[in-house]
Design brief:
Immunoglobulin-like; 2 domains; 49% strand
Length: 191
């Protein structure tokens, strides 16, 4: 059994970013992925199989979705285990110009270095910090208006201390992706 987190597309939007979690005993390597979509249209439930497609460019301008034979995912290996509070189908309510906390137990460091949380392609005006009680999500009042909905994906990195990297390439902060937390549905609400 696999778990899709953040798999509900909000009204008025045409896409969603999500995460896929597989059991620890899933075989490593490429696996064929089959997906179904479900929607309610005029009070009737409609279910359709997702068709794999490649996003291709023609003549350097036009983009087309071209049907593909299969959709593959690759399971690379076990991820670091982090405890995140109950991520439910109910969105995390973040006040415009305020903050909301998602309970999480994330260590300060790992054998690879200090832990850093980074939002993956968030909407403008949304940021995070690692607080004592969990992950703190902040919303900028000038950028985010009540009603904005979507999903947030938090990547967890281990960052090496530059002092331990003497004599190596230091043009950018050396960091290693440990895992991505399950997608977190959110909604910006009035303060």
């Amino acid at each position: 059994m696999r778990c899709l987190c953040g798999s509900c597309i909000a009204a008025g939007q045409d896409m969603v970013r999500l995460t896929l979690t597989v059991p620890a005993d899933t075989p490593r390597g490429p696996l064929c992925l089959d997906a179904m979509g479900r929607a309610k249209i005029l009070q009737r439930e409609v279910i359709r199989e997702a068709v794999p497609a490649d996003d291709l460019m023609q003549a350097f301008i036009y983009r087309h979705l071209v049907p593909a034979e299969e959709s593959l995912v690759c399971v690379l290996g076990p991820a670091e285990r982090f405890t995140v509070g109950a991520v439910s189908s109910q969105p995390l309510k973040i006040p415009a110009g305020g903050h909301a906390c998602l309970p999480a137990t994330i260590p300060n460091s790992t054998p690879w270095g200090a832990v850093e949380l980074v939002l993956s392609d968030p909407p403008p005006g949304i940021s995070i910090t690692n607080g004592q009680q969990g992950i703190v999500f902040r919303s900028d009042a000038g950028t985010n208006k009540p009603g904005l909905k979507g999903t947030l994906i938090v990547n967890v990195y281990a960052c090496r201390d530059p002092e331990t990297m003497k004599g190596r390439e230091q043009s950018k902060k050396p960091r290693r992706l440990l895992t991505a937390l399950p997608a977190i549905p959110f909604e910006i609400v009035a303060p």
